[in-house]
From TrEMBL:
Coiled-coil region list: none
Domain spans labelled YjeF N-terminal: 9-217
Recorded catalytic activity of this chain's protein: (6R)-NADPHX = (6S)-NADPHX; (6S)-NADHX + ADP = AMP + phosphate + NADH + H(+); (6R)-NADHX = (6S)-NADHX; (6S)-NADPHX + ADP = AMP + phosphate + NADPH + H(+)
Binding site for (6S)-NADPHX: 57-61, 131-137, 142, 160, 262, 318, 370, 437
Record Pfam families: Carb_kinase, YjeF_N
Name the UniProt record assigns to this protein: Bifunctional NAD(P)H-hydrate repair enzyme
Ranges of residues in domain YjeF C-terminal: 227-497
Binding site residues for K(+): N58, D127, S163
Species this chain originates from: Sporolactobacillus nakayamae
Role noted for this protein: Catalyzes the dehydration of the S-form of NAD(P)HX at the expense of ADP, which is converted to AMP. Together with NAD(P)HX epimerase, which catalyzes the epimerization of the S- and R-forms, the enzyme allows the repair of both epimers of NAD(P)HX, a damaged form of NAD(P)H that is a result of enzymatic or heat-dependent hydration.
């Protein structure tokens, strides 16, 4: 499933209309019908449904929905914020069809009191005020209606996007509808994955409206949401005659005297994720603790680290910030140029002023910062990163020729060529120390087993989140999931994914 900016969505619509020949009114009819079909199962006879309509094509969708509601058992009332005489194009076409079907239109500006009463009675509000075409803060008459909708006790369903939200995820301070549910047309817009905007969407359902895939290709969209089907299609399948050397020989350089856990989490997660052989390098002082818990690993002393015979390396979790550690990080990044190298946590800290090392590598490195680490790498604030993460991630990955795993609620993986994949799994149970270390281990193991680095990174992030979802869905709450729980719950999730592979 693609994820688009405002401009990309406009180009996709225009291509479909101009070159595929599906007219705007057809797409609008499809959109309205898809929304009606999504609403229908929950509609109750006699229910008060208020459709609030703006001047543009989002309002046009509203007219189609209102027309279909006319023939249902609900009581529909349709309120217009704009002047009907100013409605043009496809929206005017469907306004006419609505009126000709016996529908009535009220104008908010003509009957403010009636509108207030209507919202008080309403059980369901369909928000078709503003869609992807909004620019800047909603005009005063729209803002007033938005705040009335937000004060109402009715269920609010936004069409395409909660009205007022800038679709490309730009930061904003103006009012926007806070929906209980958003019925997104055709494909998700960037704003759905950007924190401030995302909070306004409620539950999201994406409704196809019949746009062919060719239109996405023509519009040059290279951004997707990872689905379970993508993961099942790309997980590595073991050759029955394979041996331990076939599944990667990795080295994990992690841990410090005061942070032994990080090395343990990454190592155990790598083992649970299928790595063939794992060597671990921790300071001698903590080796006995780690070795006692990880009998499956071999150990390399920090002073004699060599990459010979290895096929991949991960460096960073709990490493510490001393000067000599920085030298080690830079040496490893330079010497591992011909194999995958995951850089996380303190590894990123030490790389901050040496990012050019990344460009000299033959095999792109995989960096897995959270927003704070990304902000430090870029010399920006976390707020700046969060408000423009798609653009910043793309710029960084292209500039330094890396796979960037920008972690967060919707972890975003960006390839060196700018392709982007948004992860859809995971929950706030992962907002706890150690979760990132687990991901580093999964990343290392997957990079050494997948054919394509992008698939490896995306599948690792998907699995990490899916395990947290599985735990919270069955046995845990959002509070009590530990990094060790995530590691221990990898097997049942992988088991089910591999069960599905049987039929691929
Ligand atoms: N053929 C198409 O392009 C299709 C469009 N669709 C719908 O059309 C929407 C996009 O339509 P439009 O591009 O007409 O845009 P919108 O309906 O989102 O709104 C733009 C309209 O609002 C006005 N406007 C812009 N900024 C404003 C502001 N700050 N305050 C108040 N009014 C403002 C503009 O003058 C314009 O008339 C989508 O979100 C989707 O719901 C769907 O019907 C599918 C087909
Ligand atoms: N609210 C959340 N929803 C979904 N995933 C989350 C959330 N908070 C954190 N995560 C995930 O948990 C991991 C945390 O990584 P990180 O901050 O590096 O943790 P640590 O440094 O403690 O190991 C990331 O993969 C991140 O995407
Ligand atoms: K809307």
């Amino acid at each position: 499933m693609h994820v688009v900016s405002r401009e990309e969505m406009r180009n996709i619509d225009q291509y479909t209309i101009a070159h595929i020949g599906l007219g705007g009114p057809v797409l609008m009819e499809n959109a309205g019908r898809a929304v009606y079909a999504a609403l229908e199962p929950d509609l109750k006879a006699g229910e008060q449904v208020t459709v609030v309509i703006g001047k543009g094509n989002n309002g046009g969708d509203g007219f189609v929905i209102a027309r279909l509601l006319l023939d249902s058992e609900v009581c529909v009332s349709t309120w217009l914020v704009a002047d009907p005489g100013k409605i043009t194009g496809d929206a005017a076409y469907h306004m006419k069809a609505y009126l000709a079907s016996g529908g009535k239109i009220m104008q908010v500006k003509d009957d403010q009191e009636g509108f207030r009463r209507q919202l008080e009675q309403a059980e369901l509000i369909v928000d078709a005020l503003l869609g992807t075409g909004v620019h800047g803060a909603p005009y005063p008459e729209y803002s007033a209606v938005i705040s009335q909708i937000n004060q109402s006790k009715a269920q609010v369903v936004s069409i395409d996007i909660p009205s007022g939200i800038p679709a490309s995820g730009e930061s904003f301070t103006h009012p926007a509808v806070i929906a209980d549910r958003t019925l997104t047309l055709e494909c998700p817009k960037l704003a759905q994955f950007v924190e401030h905007a995302a909070r306004c969407f409620g539950t999201v359902h994406v409704l196809p409206i019949g746009i062919p895939r060719l239109a996405y290709r023509k519009a040059g969209v290279r951004r997707e949401v990872r689905t379970r089907a993508d993961v099942v299609r790309t997980l590595p399948v073991r050759d029955p005659f394979s041996h331990k050397g076939s599944h990667g020989k990795g080295l994990l350089i992690a841990g410090a005297a005061e942070m032994p856990g990080a090395a343990f989490f990454s190592a155990k997660a790598a083992l649970r994720s299928g790595i063939g052989l794992l060597k671990v390098s921790v300071p001698d002082s903590i080796k006995p603790i780690i070795a006692g818990r990880l009998p499956e690993t071999m150990f390399l002393s920090r002073d004699t680290i060599s990459l010979e015979g290895l096929t991949g390396v991960a460096i960073g979790p709990g490493l510490g910030r001393e000067h000599h550690v920085g030298l080690l990080v830079r040496r490893i990044v330079e010497e591992s140029g011909a194999m995958p190298c995951v850089i996380d946590a303190d590894g990123l800290f030490h790389l901050k002023n040496h990012l050019d090392l990344l460009r000299r590598r033959n095999v792109p490195a995989v960096l897995s910062p959270h927003s704070g680490e990304m902000a430090a790498l870029m010399g920006m604030s976390v707020k700046d990163i969060e408000s423009d993460r798609f653009t910043i991630a793309k710029m960084f990955a292209e500039k330094y020729h890396v796979y960037l795993v920008l972690k967060g609620k919707y972890t975003l993986v960006t390839a060196p060529d700018g392709r982007q994949v948004v992860n859809s799994t995971g929950n706030a149970a992962l907002a706890k120390g150690g979760s990132g270390d687990v991901l580093t281990g999964i990343l290392l193991a997957f990079l050494l087993q997948h054919k394509q680095m992008m698939d490896a990174a995306c599948n690792a992030v998907y699995l990490h989140g899916a395990v947290a979802d599985d735990l919270v869905g069955h046995t845990h709450s959002l509070l009590d999931v530990l990094a060790t729980d995530v590691i221990d719950a990898i097997p049942p999730v992988l088991h089910r994914l591999y069960g599905d592979i049987g039929s691929r």
